[in-house]
Amino acid sequence: MNENDAEIAALKRELRKRSLAFRRALSAEERASYSAAITERLLSLEAVKQARTIFAYAAMEDEVQTEALISSLLEMGKRVAIPLVTGKRTMEAVLAPSMDALEYGAYHILTVREDRRIVLPPQEIDCVLVPGVAFDMDGTRLGMGGGYYDVFLPKIPCAVKIALAYSCQIVESIPKLSHDCGVDWIVTEKGSFRAGKNK
Q: Would you place residue 199 in the very low, low, confident or very high pLDDT band (cuts 50, 70, 90)?
């Protein structure tokens, strides 16, 4: 890592700390209310309506909640997949055929039951719902630092990438490294907007 990259990494660590504090300061009631509004906005997006296969995520407690969203997508007839971590910085998309195929795993996060897991080829994904710690208006994403999405997203360059975030997670600017992947749309409880071109 060169000096500039090290400086960017340090700035990202500080921004991650601040943004996580904002997100974690939300009450359970606020998270539930905001997540419901975000779900409603997301389902109205044309990119979601037209998508056949959607890669969602199983939320941690303080993230935008997705259990009701996954259920709604399945009811709409969408093929839904969620992540399965397979190693350091690596994950696969595993089909979630129904809500009863899901169970709570580590950290109380939903996962597909082992006996129901079918790995989906990444190129079949039309739309990706992307979690994150912070986003800026250009669509730059700050994740938890594990690198899973930065490795996975380049495998599906044609898929529409949509960030789900509380409005308190939107920041003015996020320092970016060459391997960082951005998003095309950002959906918060206050609105939906197309991200800038500098992703």
A: very low
Q: What is the mean pLDDT of residues 166-181?
A: 89
Q: Which helix (H) or strand (E) holds 15?
A: helix 3-24
DSSP string, 129-195: EE--SEEETT--EE--SS-HHHHHGGG-TTSEEEEE--GGGEES-----TT----SEEEETTEEEE-
Residue 1 has pLDDT above 90, yes or no: no
Q: How many domains does the chain have?
A: 1
CATH code for the domain in which residue 173 is found: 3.40.50.10420
The overall average pLDDT reported for the chain is 92
Residue 199 in any domain: the answer is no
- Distance CA(189)–CA(123), nearest Å, equals 30
Burial 95-131 (b: 16+ CB within 10 A, else e): bbeeeebbeeeeeeebbbeeeeeeebebeebbbbbbb
Query: What range does the domain containing 140 cover?
Result: 3-194
Nearest to 145 by CA among 26, 27, 8, 38: 8
Query: What is the arithmetic mean of pLDDT over 3-28?
Result: 91
- Do the domain assignments include residue 69? yes
Amino acid at residue number 34: Y
Q: Say what the pTM is.
A: 0.92
In this prediction, residues 148-157 reach a mean pLDDT of 92
Does residue 147 lie within any of the structural domains?
yes
